[in-house]
Amino acid sequence: MFVCPSSADRLLDRPPVSNYAGCQNDVESPINVDNHGVLFLNSHISRKDVTDGISHTLYVGEKLTDPLDLGWMSGTRATLRNTGLAPGWGSPDPTVRNPAEKNELWVGGFASEHADVSNYLFGDGRTESLSNCIDMKVFQQLGNRADGKLFDHDPMAP
Questions:
Q1: pLDDT at 148
Q2: Tens of pLDDT along 98-127?
Q3: Which long-range contacts (CB under 8 A, 24 or more apart) does 46-50 make?
Q4: What is the CA radius of gyration of the chain?
Q5: What is the pLDDT of residue 4?
Q6: What is the CB neighbour count within 10 angstroms for residue 34?
Q7: Dihedral sign of CA atoms 157, 35, 59, 18 in order
Q8: pTM for the full model?
Q9: How far, CA to CA in Å, does 27 sit from each of 15, 17, 45, 77?
Q10: In angstroms, rounded to a whole number, what is the distance separating the alpha carbons of residues 80 and 60?
């Protein structure tokens, strides 16, 4: 369930993992009750809580899977990610395969096996392939449900 058709994981003989995760925060930080995304520890966000507008807020995005993923319902980094890292980089340090092994509170960012894009679900139900070269300021704004900031240029442009 929730496996991208382009993922090599769909061919592996192991329990299914997901290539999608909820947006937990706009910065890299531990999963907690005060995160700024829409899915985080004990979240109960309604449409009225997304004051930046649901069409300008990321709800779910693609992620690379990890053999240690605990599955969709775990509420861990297996199911939650943030916009604190540039898309395409699941890790702040590309030499570290799994930073979670070094820091259990590390969450990580969105990434995919697609060339130069990752796919996202916005609050209005729209899916969009965003360039991995998207402006980081805009990307972080998309990950924050209520920062009150308006885009100063096209949010889909690199």
A1: 86
A2: 565 667 788 889 998 888 899 999 999 999
A3: 47/123, 49/145, 49/146, 50/123, 50/145, 50/146
A4: 15
A5: 73
A6: 8
A7: positive
A8: 0.83
A9: 30, 24, 18, 14
A10: 9
User: Which tokens sit at 49?
Assistant: 């809580």
Task: Give CA–CA dist 86/84, Å, rounded.
Answer: 7
Name the strands in the sheet holding 58-62, side by side, starting at the edge strand that comes first in the sequence.
80-82, 20-25, 58-62, 117-122, 127-131
Instruction: Extract the tokens encoding 65.
Output: 């899977």
**What three-state secondary structure class fits 128?**
strand
pLDDT at residue 105, as a whole number:
84
Give the separation between CA 77 and CA 91, rounded to whole angstroms. Answer: 12
Closest by CA to 130, choosing from 54, 53, 77, 60, is: 60
**CA atoms of 155 and 124, how far apart (whole Å):** 16
**H runs (alpha helix) in the chain:** 136-142
Stretches in the chain below the pLDDT threshold 70: 1, 8-16, 71-72, 89-102, 150-158
Give dist(CA 86, CA 67) in Å, integer: 22
| Number of residues in the chain | 158
